[in-house]
Design brief:
The protein has 200 residues and is of the alpha/beta class. It has helices spanning 14-27, 63-68, 85-92, 95-100, 121-134, 147-151, 176-196; strands at 2-8, 32-38, 71-79, 82-83, 107-114, 138-139, 161-164. Strands 1, 2, 3, 4, 5, 6 and 7 form a seven-stranded mixed β-sheet that branches. It is globular.
Length: 200
């Protein structure tokens, strides 16, 4: 089995729901499996620390997860049109993988959630692509052959899967189209990784 790393940060659970849908798509591809990981929160208070093991949900990502993966799905809630500091902090620590070329040539995709329909989804997705391009990864988006991309009244972009949780929402279920697009993106990422590995 080849692992696809589904790496995300989620504050209230909306981005986690997208991650699970992407993982569902990955797991639907024969010979591929998702490896779901998260990152700890960062704090402006230097004394504040997160436990080594999260209280619930997937384990925290380690740099070896990046080295071992056949592909990467990267997700974050939107913070003023950009990725969350917690995910950026993790990516800032990947210089050894950049120097060794550990991610070069691997496929990757991105996903995000926002509180409002025009909350900066596309700029957040683009901001997450930048470090992946520096790592030499091959970006995979959502083509308009996915009919939900033209039909969605909520999240979903050609740049990556997205979700509109609603302003102030703690957790909100993915719409039918949002879930379909997230599953399709995970499937496309896993199929691309399989093809790059020389499998049908």
């Amino acid at each position: 089995m080849k692992d696809i790393l589904v790496l995300y940060y989620s504050r209230h659970g909306a981005t986690r729901e997208l991650a699970l849908a992407i993982a569902q798509g990955v797991d639907s591809v024969p010979g591929m499996q998702s490896r779901i990981r998260t990152v700890p929160s960062v704090s402006p208070v230097t004394e504040a620390t997160e436990p080594d093991i999260p209280a619930d949900g997937p384990p925290y990502a380690e740099l070896r997860d990046l080295e071992e993966c056949a592909g990467l799905a990267l997700g974050s809630p939107t913070r003023f049109g950009n990725m969350a500091a917690s995910l950026k902090h993790f990516l800032d620590g990947t210089t050894p993988q950049w120097l060794s070329g550990a991610l070069a040539g691997k496929p990757a995709c991105v996903f995000t959630s926002t509180g409002s329909l025009h909350g900066g989804q596309e700029t957040t997705l683009l901001s997450m692509m930048l470090p992946l391009l520096h790592h030499g990864m091959l970006l995979v988006g959502i083509p308009y052959t996915e009919s939900a991309l033209s039909a969605t009244q909520s999240g979903g972009t050609p740049y990556g899967a997205s979700h509109v949780s609603g302003a102030g929402a703690r957790e909100s279920a993915l719409s039918h189209d949002e879930k379909a697009l997230a599953v399709a993106l995970g499937t496309r990422l896993a199929r691309t990784a399989a093809r790059l590995a020389g499998r049908p």
